[in-house]
């Protein structure tokens, strides 16, 4: 909320100096009062949030030009911008800013639309909720301002807390997230405002306040996501955003938050998908090996220094074909998804192939390939993959996909039976295949990684994959997939310019960036993006013409032998020898599904009532994470999140609270109907292997 009128001349500077001297005198006169407030606030934090107390105890601020305005409010001269943080009346300025923000709200947004050509029960009931939203919206006037109660809000920049005090006097917030990168400002807030009242407000059942203090802008989203998972992703797309003051740090964290927003609103999963994962995982276990971790010292150093090329099927793959052929004997090639068909046409055989999409369509593309071509390729995937995938490769392996019911089942039953192997969960392996490839790179400890054809977008809708790919025939789309009507976002290109991406492509880029941040902490890790696609933060852009591989010729099969020996083991016996009924706890699932249908009665009259009820359901599911029923959490959480979000979105869209809440009850009914149906679906879980269709066989030019 900085004062945006810096002193432009000596006269103004002298006037401010006089004002500052008087302000410093006022500060001395009120020293006892300010000190008592500080001690009181620190005492409260020591009791309620001791981690913040410990961080601030004995803290010495770097910004020292603190003074008191005539109004009695604190102010500070910011040397970095050459003017005070506030005007001469900080609270009045704060009131004006709060008033404007409440009447012109900024909030997160997600539009879920009806799905067609999908026969899953999740989609069926989601469509029923969307139908009810359309019916129940009739005649209601849309909300224009912040409602009196909001489910979640993020404040970017606390300053001394004046705006926060005023905000909480005028609005009630269930989950409040407070970001302040400058610890000096938070330190001075302990003298400026009464934190006890604020903390008491959130010391109620179902209300939470989360502090993100002194962290860098690019760290906020990761730490926020941890809290968001605990509080419920269903409120993420209905969160009010408030910028406390302008600064390079606040502007950067806000931009980063927007750019990585997809991580909050995609990848929730859903019930039918989880059942498919269970069925396919159980059938795949006897066919393949499972990834486990034994430490970083199990491989010779020369292996981790081998250059690795992750090959995607983007349009820029075509620019690197000659380079791949030239350096083929010096590198390890990992093909991603449909890239393998393209490479086959080009006469290039990868060393490792990865796939992640669980549908049968994923394995149908292998029907276009000669069996001899696949010999020698190491097929890697995850434990939700279609079981036929592992039939195409002489040797294969799978890692655990985080957040999946099949993963929870495997791990819990293995550990319950004394199996203490460190089975690997491949973090950041979603949503598409390049993400899985990088997850395996992370597991194996490779230090030199090149992305080629990993475009995460395209420059025009007609050129979205390699021209040699199965998406085209004679230079025209085959009808297998088109992006002509797709909703696209604009992103920075790897070599400048703009790239256009679908939501899933953009999410893939965000996930790559998240894992790259971790990999870049390794002492010897380097990565290069040769793709003429979207920029991947943390990866060095490198023109194909500038690639220089001076490494010696390597024996790729020897490398794969060592990787398999070091990182893969036989599937856990404890799971192989149990039936699906023994594994799934159907009776306990029925009890939980009944609990999730109870509570919405005539006592539910306000938005807060509904949010509290939905939050109680979320907690009921969330606490299963730490129990033997973790797989029930993984089965339920995705479909619950979608349904709860649709209810919350409707809840805050309209002005008339009582009428909106009354009508929202109709949106809850389809969710209860789905809960009624789920147990019978779970009893048939072993049959949920995807049967596929003939779409790829008909249209793909493999």
TrEMBL record:
Protein name as annotated: Motility associated factor glycosyltransferase family protein
What InterPro entries does the record tag this protein with? Maf_N, MptE-like
Its domain of life reads Bacteria
Domain annotation 6-hydroxymethylpterin diphosphokinase MptE-like: ranges:
299-460
Q: Give start and end of each Glycosyltransferase Maf N-terminal domain.
A: 37-266
**Any Pfam family the entry gives:** Maf_flag10_N
Coiled-coil ranges from the UniProt annotation:
none
């Amino acid at each position: 909320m900085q004062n945006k009128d810096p002193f432009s001349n000596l006269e103004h500077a002298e006037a401010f100096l006089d004002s500052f001297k008087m302000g410093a005198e006022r500060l001395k006169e009120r020293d006892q009062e300010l000190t008592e407030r500080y001690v009181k606030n620190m005492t409260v934090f020591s009791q309620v949030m001791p981690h913040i107390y410990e961080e601030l105890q004995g803290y010495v601020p770097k910004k020292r030009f603190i003074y008191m305005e005539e109004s009695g409010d604190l102010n500070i001269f910011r040397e970095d911008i050459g003017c005070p943080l506030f005007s001469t009346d900080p609270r009045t300025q704060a009131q004006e800013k709060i008033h404007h923000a409440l009447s012109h709200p900024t909030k997160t947004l997600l539009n879920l639309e009806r799905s067609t050509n999908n026969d899953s029960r999740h989609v069926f009931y989601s469509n029923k909720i969307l139908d009810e939203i359309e019916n129940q919206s009739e005649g209601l006037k849309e909300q224009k301002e912040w409602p009196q109660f909001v489910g979640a809000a993020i404040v970017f920049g606390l300053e001394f807390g004046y705006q926060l005090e005023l905000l909480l006097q005028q609005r009630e917030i269930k989950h409040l997230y407070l970001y302040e990168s400058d610890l000096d400002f938070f330190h001075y807030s302990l003298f400026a405002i009464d934190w006890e009242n604020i903390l008491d407000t959130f010391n109620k059942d179902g209300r939470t306040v989360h502090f993100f203090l002194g962290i860098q802008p690019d760290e906020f989203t990761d730490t926020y996501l941890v809290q968001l998972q605990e509080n419920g992703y269903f409120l993420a797309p209905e969160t009010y955003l408030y910028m406390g003051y302008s600064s390079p740090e606040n502007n950067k964290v806000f931009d980063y938050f927007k750019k990585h927003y997809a991580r909050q609103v995609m990848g929730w999963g859903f019930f039918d998908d989880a059942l498919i994962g269970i069925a396919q995982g159980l059938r795949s276990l006897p066919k393949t090996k499972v990834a486990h971790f034994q430490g970083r010292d199990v491989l010779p150093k020369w292996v981790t220094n081998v250059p690795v090329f992750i090959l995607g099927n983007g349009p820029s793959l075509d620019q690197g074909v000659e380079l791949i052929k030239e350096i083929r004997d010096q590198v390890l090639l990992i093909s991603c998804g449909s890239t393998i068909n393209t490479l086959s046409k080009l006469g290039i055989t990868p060393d490792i192939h990865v796939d992640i999409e669980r549908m049968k369509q994923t394995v149908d593309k292998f029907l276009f390939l000669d069996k001899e071509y696949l010999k020698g390729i190491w097929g890697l995937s995850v434990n939700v993959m279609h079981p036929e995938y592992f039939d195409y490769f002489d040797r294969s392996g799978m890692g655990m996909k985080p957040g999946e019911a099949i993963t929870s089942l495997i791990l819990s039953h293995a550990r319950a039976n004394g199996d203490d192997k460190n089975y690997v969960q491949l973090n950041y392996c979603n949503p598409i295949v390049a993400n899985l490839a990088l997850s395996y790179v992370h597991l194996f400890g490779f230090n030199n990684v090149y992305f080629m054809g990993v475009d995460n977008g395209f420059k025009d809708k007609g050129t979205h994959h390699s021209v040699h790919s199965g998406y085209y025939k004679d230079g025209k789309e085959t009808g297998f997939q088109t992006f002509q009507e797709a909703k696209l976002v604009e992103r920075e290109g790897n070599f400048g310019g703009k790239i256009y991406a679908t939501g899933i492509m953009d999410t893939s880029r965000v996930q790559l960036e998240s894992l790259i941040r971790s990999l870049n902490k390794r002492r010897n890790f380097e990565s290069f993006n040769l793709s003429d696609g979207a920029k991947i933060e943390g990866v060095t852009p490198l023109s194909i013409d500038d690639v220089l591989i001076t490494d010696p010729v390597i024996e790729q099969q020897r490398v794969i032998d060592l990787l398999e020996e070091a990182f893969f083991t036989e599937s856990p016996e404890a799971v192989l020898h149990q039936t699906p009924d023994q594994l799934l706890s159907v009776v306990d699932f029925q009890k939980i599904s009944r609990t999730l249908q109870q509570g919405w009665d005539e006592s539910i009259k306000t938005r807060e009532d509904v949010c509290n009820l939905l939050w109680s359901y979320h907690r009921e599911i969330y606490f299963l994470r730490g129990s033997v029923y973790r797989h029930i959490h993984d089965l339920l959480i995705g479909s619950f999140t979608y349904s709860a979000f649709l209810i919350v979105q409707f809840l805050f869209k309209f002005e008339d609270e009582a009428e909106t809440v009354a009508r929202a009850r109709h949106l809850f009914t389809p969710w209860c109907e789905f809960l009624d149906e789920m147990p019978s679906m779970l009893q048939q879980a072993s049959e949920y292997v995807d049967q596929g269709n003939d779409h790829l066989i008909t249209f793909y030019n493999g």
